[in-house]
Amino acid sequence: MEENTWLDYVAALGSVATPILVIALSAIGWRVKAGIERRIELEDQLRQDRIDIYNKILEPFVILLTSDAAWSQDRKNKNKNKEQFAQEKMLSLEYRECGFKMSLVGSDAVVKAYNNLMQYFYAANDNPQATVGHDTTKEMLELLGSFLLEIRRSMGNETTQLDHWDMCEWWMSDARILRDGETVA
Question: Which position among 89, 130, 172, 185 has the lowest Cβ density within 10 Å, counted as fewest Cβ atoms?
């Protein structure tokens, strides 16, 4: 009878350990895969939540930036002042709730851009005389464009080459005039 060598023992141990190792690695792989899938699912849900919140936050700005002709053509808006309507939306409890939600789920840059925009409006309301002589339209549009740009980045366009003026050009005919430093009456 032959004497077993240490190589025989290693081979025997390997044949027993291999199935155990394969099962363990498969379990670890399955757990990692499940974790990644869960993270992707949560990110998709967060993305949808962000879209809903961003749409609600942007609604008063959309109203304010709608042309008077387009506003008056919509039957729902008959005899409604769009500035007053937008202001009422911004002061509503629902709008405040959306602001709180956005501060929880929005990216840091989106929250900061929104804060800057709202602080501009608060300062303008608190001290209307302070804005006399300033090009308030240009300032407000820069802040709104920055807010839109940060939303764009947070929705997956992190490497966008657009700037805050590019975010305004499609809906504002005077955007290039304002960007280049000319004032609009």
Answer: 185
The separation between CA 36 and the C-alpha centre of its own chain, rounded to angstroms, equals: 22
AA letter at 158: E
As a whole number of angstroms, the distance between CA 32 and CA 27 comes to: 9
Reduced to 3 states, what is the DSSP secondary structure of residue 180?
A: coil
Q: What is the DSSP code (8-state) at residue 4? A: P
Render pLDDT for 92-115 as a digit per residue (tens, 0 to 9): 999 999 999 999 999 999 999 999
d(CA 75, CA 73): 6
Average pLDDT of every residue of the chain? 84
The answer to whether the CB of 52 falls within 8 A of the CB of 23 is no
Q: Are 90 and 128 in contact (CB under 8 A)?
A: no
Instruction: Count CB-CB contacts under 10 A for residue 130.
Output: 11
